[in-house]
Amino acid sequence: MSKLAIDGGTPVRTDPWPARLQIDDREINAVMELMQATKAGGAFDRYGGVHVDEYEVKFAEAVGTRWATGMSAGTAAVHSALGALRLEPGTEVISSPITDQGAVMPVVAQGCIPVFADASPECMNMSPEGIRAKLTDRTGAIICGHIAGIPCEMDEIMAIAKERDLFVIEDCAQAHGATYGGKVVGSIGHLGAYSLMSGKHTVAGGQGGMVTTDDEELYWNAKRFADRGKPFNSEVGSNLFLGLNYRMTELDAVIGKVQLTKMMDIADRRRAFVYKLKDEIADLQAFSVCWYPEKSDPAWWFLLIRIHVDKLTCDKATAVQAIQAEGIPMGMNYGAIATKAHWLQERSAFGRQSQFPWDCVWPDGDWEWALDVPNAWAADENHMRMGVHECCDEQSALDTAEALRKVEEAYRA
Ligand SMILES: Cc1ncc(COP(=O)(O)O)c(C=O)c1O
Q1: 200 CA to middle of ligand 1, Å?
Q2: Whole domain around residue 139: which residue ranges?
Q3: 274, part of any domain
Q4: What is the pLDDT of residue 393?
Q5: pTM higher than 0.85, yes or no?
Q6: Is the Cβ atom of 390 under 6 angstroms away from ligand 1?
Q7: Is 80's C-beta closer than 6 angstroms to any atom of ligand 1?
Q8: How many domains, the chain?
Q9: Contacts with 296 (C-beta within 8 Å, 6 or more apart), sequence order
Q10: Is the bond preceding residue 89 a cis peptide, omega within 30 degrees?
């Protein structure tokens, strides 16, 4: 058995981990062309330009929806998708137990209440059982995050929604190009919300977002919401309802349009890495690629590796340090357990004293049940998080497999 690098042995990998190269000359040229056109009297803003409109049409085509509408961020996309639903204040919205706060804060900003559905211990996404356990007469919508690029169990979720007459917003921020039952995420629920910020599979410059839908009324509402309630496609002559300014710019769109042409390739290259690794470690007892629904093909924003500490003589932290010492960028966990956030624990949204909107809906202060997600905590504990991207090649997968094998052999229980 070879000596672990953490104990002074030779690391499996001494080459640096591949860097993520996000853009090439196509994005640069697209920006330069926009600049030249603007210099000659063109527009930076969608009102005078053509690029946001084109990007929206192409985005909808890529996802497989009738419409898409550009946003300034993923948070703006979730907010506009929710705004489009015109939910009554106090409506409970089933939210993901592990997610970015950009998927939760819009719920409260709309005067609604996030109620967190638990995960299964094998997956960080909300589970159908977790959703059912949190439904009440006040539930109006579900925002299901496809965390790490792994689609939620959409058949079951859509069945619950139909049964209870609920809207479903798919949060696709981490799942560009992921599919479920052959459909691209964002085309299964009533609405999809994408983040196009700089860390995502595809980007619209530094920030950006997109809402997708097949429903014409929801499309117009999302577009109106993202532009101060302007009466697009309406006979009313003035702003229709409360909204904000979440418009995408032409600069975002020219970058995003090029990036969109790469979306499926980016997802496929990430899959090639993960499935190679999965094959290579199929016989290991302590480590495996995480569970994902059979009908899904995840897009792997990051990779979750299941760790079975009962098969090891060491704890998780030691295993992670040993893998890192072998030259593999392994992290302890994802850690974004939504319900742990200070603002949710303190119900701190509007003002310094008020606990609005929670105190209006649950004046007795009893809302611990809405934050209770024990399986999500277990899922976070049971998995390690690995940064993977489309530039991770076959050799990186082979090195990762070798490092996991070496650590398992050294600490085998
Ligand atoms: C699942 C999820 N939803 C929403 C967001 C918010 O997106 P943005 O940062 O573009 O506002 C993120 C951001 O990482 C996210 O991961």
Answers
A1: 9
A2: 25-262
A3: no
A4: 97
A5: yes
A6: no
A7: no
A8: 1
A9: 150, 151, 178, 179, 180, 181
A10: no
